[in-house]
Write a structure and sequence with these properties.
- The chain has 11 helices and 12 strands.
- The protein is α/β, with parallel strands linked by helices.
- The strands form 2 sheets. The chain has a 6-stranded mixed sheet with strand order 2-1-3-5-6-4. Strands 9-8-7-10-11-12 form a 6-stranded parallel sheet, sandwiched between helices.
- α4 packs across α10 and α10 packs across α11.
- It is globular.
- The structure holds NADP nicotinamide-adenine-dinucleotide phosphate.
- NADP nicotinamide-adenine-dinucleotide phosphate (NAP) binds next to α4, α5 and α10.
């Protein structure tokens, strides 16, 4: 049986085993997916052990950076983002990828949000924003804005991820108009669902609002967009698509978006 897993700090609430078990069920493969809670000082030994027996692992908070020096190769986008969330073990070594990047891209494509030559805005400057900004830049967004609560604390690395990116405040966002607005902050996430990172007047000036949050399925941020007659997409597709992208890397196969949708529908019952 092929062995997979997730390395991270506290993993009690992870949905990853459920997603990968549904993947195995729908594609008819036999595999196991284990939660591998790992302390920082245990990472080198853990990686060594995984090289002998595991086909691949995902990596989550807080180890997405820590595993990077232990790898034999890292893709360009994962290097640019500065985070590895997927590792493939082969006879040639251990190789790092970032599938949040692909998951976000596939979510946009599936929902017919085409960002090429468009103005896009990302809210928040954390880990999710890095993959999202890199994808939007690579997909040809004409102008990218990153909105932060404090410009002086925003990581300057964002300018390297997307040259030409403009970092602005929430006050400056009030005067901006564009195509796609992406929430990469935790504002509105369960259980504090009565909050939105922006007022409805901001959603009204964008054709599509996309939320990285998947619980609740409709955040206040998305409800505001819908009330303005705009496109509204939650983060569940991205969550499942990044897991399927990891399986594509591990299995060396391609899976269509209908598989992602099937897993997503089953998962909705578990959230
Ligand atoms: P993070 O690194 O903890 O924070 C994201 C950023 O949000 C922070 O850097 C901060 O940026 C901003 N922020 C934090 N608290 C805020 C507040 N109270 N008000 C306004 N802004 C605030 O989180 P993350 O890992 O990037 O994840 C962000 C969200 O995306 C989470 O809800 C997470 O569950 C979700 N996510 C979803 C997927 C998926 O597959 N769907 C993948 C990854 C993450 P500033 O300091 O610059 O304002």
């Amino acid at each position: 049986m092929d062995k997979f897993g997730l390395i991270g700090g506290k993993l009690g609430h992870s949905l990853s085993p459920a997603i990968h078990d549904l993947f195995f069920k729908y594609v008819g493969k036999v595999g196991s997916y284990e939660l591998l809670e790992t302390e920082l000082d245990e990472i080198p030994a853990r990686m060594q052990a995984l090289r002998n027996g595991f086909k691949g692992v995902n990596v989550t908070i807080p180890h997405k950076l820590h595993v990077m020096p232990l790898l034999d190769g890292i893709t360009d986008e994962a290097k640019a983002i500065g985070a590895v969330n997927t590792i493939k073990f082969t006879s040639d070594g251990a190789f790092g990828f970032n599938t949040d990047y692909f998951g976000f891209g596939r979510m946009l494509e599936y929902n017919e949000i085409f960002v090429k030559d468009q103005v896009c805005v990302v809210l928040g400057s954390g880990g999710a924003a890095r993959a999202v900004v890199k994808y939007l830049a690579d997909a040809g967004a004409t102008k990218l804005f990153l909105v932060t609560r404090d410009i002086s604390k925003c990581d300057p690395h964002f300018q390297e991820i997307a040259p030409g990116l403009e970092v602005i405040t929430y006050k400056e966002l009030e005067n901006l108009q564009g195509y796609c607005l992406v929430n990469c902050t935790p504002v509105g996430m369960f259980p504090k669902v009565a909050a939105s990172p922006v007022p409805k007047s901001v959603n009204a000036r964008f054709e599509a609002s996309v939320d990285a949050i998947y619980n609740p399925s409709e955040t206040l941020f998305l409800a505001q967009a819908k009330a303005c007659g705009k496109k509204a997409v939650n983060g569940l597709f991205m969550l499942v698509a990044q897991a399927v992208a990891a399986q594509e890397i591990w299995q060396d196969e391609k899976y269509d978006s209908e598989l992602i949708v099937k897993i997503m529908h089953d998962l909705e019952q578990k959230i």
